[in-house]
UniProtKB/TrEMBL annotation:
Highest classification ranks of the organism: Bacteria, Bacillati, Actinomycetota, Actinomycetes, Pseudonocardiales
Gene3D superfamilies named in the record: 3.30.70.360, Zn peptidases
InterPro entries, sorted: Cyt/Met_Dipeptidase, Peptidase_M20, Peptidase_M20_dimer
Source species, domain of life: Bacteria
UniProt-listed SUPFAM superfamilies: Zn-dependent exopeptidases
Swiss-Prot/TrEMBL keywords: Hydrolase, Metal-binding, Protease
Hydrolase found in the keyword field: yes
Protein name, UniProt field: Acetylornithine deacetylase/Succinyl-diaminopimelate desuccinylase
Residue intervals of the Peptidase M20 dimerisation domain: 212-366
Record GO biological process: proteolysis
PANTHER family: BETA-ALA-HIS DIPEPTIDASE, CARNOSINE DIPEPTIDASE 2, ISOFORM A
GO molecular function ontology, one term from the record: metal ion binding
Amino acid sequence: MGRVEQKSVRESVVTSWTGDVIPSLSGLVAIPALSPAFDAEWAKSGHLAAAVEHVRAWIAGRDLPGATIEVVQLEDRTPVLLVDVPATPGAAAEGTVLMYGHLDKQPPVGGWSEGLGPWTPVIRDGRLYGRGSVDDGYSGYAATTAIEAVHAAGGEHARIVLLLETGEESGSPDLPAYVEHLADRIGDVSLVVCLDAGGSDYERLWLVTSLRGMLHLDVKVQLLGSAQHSGVASGVVASSFRILRHLIERLEDSATGELLLDELKVEVPADRLAELKAVSQDFPEALSKAFPLVEGGRVITEDALELMLNNAWRPTLSVIGADGFPKPADAGNVLRESTTLTLSFRLPPTADAEKALEAVKRTLTTDVPYGAKVTFGDNPQAEDGWNAPTESPWLTTALRTVSDEVFGRPHRATGMGGSIPFMGLLSRKFPEAQFLVTGACGADSNIHVPDEWLHLDYAQQVTEAVAHILDAHARG
């Protein structure tokens, strides 16, 4: 591992996690720091600010020679925590390492298992349960602990800027403004380390080499000025739901789930296809067995490679919300005046999100049946995805060594079906930078749903691996 001493790195990481990280991270889990999209009164509630202060205070008490720590908050925007750690002697020429994570959380949702809850940190069987444990509260702790471990082992690192935001679960709407505002302080980034990812098991290092983009918009179809008795109006006036269903059929083949617009599709690059083939062969049930289906339920196909391509490189549509419907117990014989659905598209990593949004809107508003009125909600989201740059030789060598000495087995690279908007932004801003997108999340870590949990031993291994890669980067 070059000059950094492996045993010292491991001892430093384990000691910090056991004695310092887990107690403070548990305290962070207890803070209901909902992302702004799920808490319109976030500024008033103060939970995001409390999460930032909790982590700031912890980092301030760590051994990071020369580090500066600051909470930055632009007007009417969610706060970010910025930690600037000077390079070790002789490593300043290697540019800046930008380490990224987020402190905002998804909603709690119901259905947590007995004894567990979103804001109740519980350690059970080597797992830390609670909302934000793995997505992504641990990331700032892991990054700080990795830097400390480099120092403890006599290693080197370039200048490091740790940026923890509080709007990722809302699509990072404030982050471009912060990147612009902090451009001079961030500097010339040569390596990005993102710990908001993971893979199919907890036995090796997983790299995410692509992330899908996304579209998110509300679509409302209205034909009646007011609701009418269904026995009187049906057969004369079309149902707004039927019209919207017909319009969606222009976007998606409901029998197969295939999206039909060319603007939403791309050709899968050869290197990414090769990565997915390797993972599908090693982990043929990684996706088909990952989700709690009802008895007798099946995934879309039993072909592992097709599932991975569907999840990482093909566009999909999910209807994730609705308005204009009464609850079943309250539903009378009424032809409703309008139907609103929230459409969530996942886009291929290299698709142009703005062009895709334009194509979707055009398709939904052209030749609408019966002259119905189609409108869209305020502020639709259109976020580009991300495809990793070609790997530099130093990173390839470091990954192979880390995989052997820390995990004892080869690492794997794959695409992730979700989105981290910041990666696309950074890739455009720093086209020469290398990216290490990894993390402690597994397919069964329950991010966004009940019983979210962090694999504590694996998180420590990921932290150890990051420490070695920081040292390798500094040595070129």
